[in-house]
Amino acid sequence: xxxxxxxxxxxxxxxxxxxxxxxxxxxxxxxxxxxxxxxxxxxxxxxxxxxxxxxxxxxxxxxxxxxxxxxxxxxxxxxxxxxxxxxxxxxxxxxxxxxxxxxxxxxxxxxxxxxxxxxxxxxxxxxxxxxxxxxxxxxxxxxxxxxxxxxxxxxxxxxxxxxxxxxxxxxxxxxxxxxxxxxxxxxxxxxxxxxxxxxxxxxxxxxxxxxxxxxxxxxxxxxxxxxxxxxxxxxxxxxxxxxxxxxxxxxxxxxxxxxxxxxxxxxxxxxxxxxxxxxxxxxxxxxxxxxxxxxxxxxxxxxxxxxxxxxxxxxxxxxxxxxxxxxxxxxxxxxxxxxxxxxxxxxxxxxxxxxxxxxxxxxxxxxxxxxxxxxxxxxxxxxxxxxxxxxxxxxxxxxxxxxxxxxxxx
Length: 410
Prior knowledge:
Order of helices and strands: HHHHHHHHHHHHHHHHH
Largest sheet: none
Distance between the termini: 44 Å
Strand content: under 5%
Number of helices: 17
């Protein structure tokens, strides 16, 4: 895919007509005065960075549990990598960089300890009470659970940031619904999202802004790359296994041809940087082509386009699927990872049962003195909030305090 370098926004300070404009934002649920020094989207990004939820990401699993080593990605380092790629894409496409970065920084706030394993376990025990969804939980964190400001719960982010958080993977209602949709037999929209939209309509049937879309595809680029890096570090992946994906085989061939005999650590980095570059350039080229056909005159035209605007080419989409298949078979379903997953699931299930039976055990929960009198569904949602906010290290420590035996996650 060729790129029109004349259309790139590097250093120009220009904002495309289809970008979100912070000066004409749809505003916040709770009106507030404008800042004299920052745009509304800058304020959102800054609020996100200064949260407890953001700090907790440093002790939450991406793929490998933290005792495995200090150099593996955590939710925090993953989030920073996503934000860097999102900002680069936003700059190239003349979007609002602060909004794209903010959506990237907040997108994993709702993740539980122990990565997707913890989410699956919490969803399982929450099924009688409406289930658990990390995207909906992210919304709860920024609209309710962060308790920092005198005038409101949550962060009181702009409509555009909240829309990007909820819909960065696509609409949740209607014929284009992605994942949680309620159409075509798919699972319904999580109730926390519906509850918030009753107060502040995020227009769940439309696509999100282009800033949110580049944040979403940056997530794919980041974890495809760093899960390979971490997999090689762990020994679960080998260079021979990477040969299964022609795209990766080609990158390794390029590096070997240019740097014969390069030491392994530098060899890995040279592969990873090329992978990110090729994927980013592919997204820029495809998005430019899509924009030339769509000819949007506003951010509203992006939302009404009926399809994703920022995406991979068909060839790169096939590569993306092949990389995910490799990671799934070689890492995510590796027997050693499955053993650790089983232990992490037990910790989450045990803690949920303990807190449902005795909510007073949640000593630091802000509603701890009122939960015991709630109906089961309301109590379960508070327990899920508390559990989802835990770091890996805290969950393991508390389980050790409450139970005679805690699974070994090393």
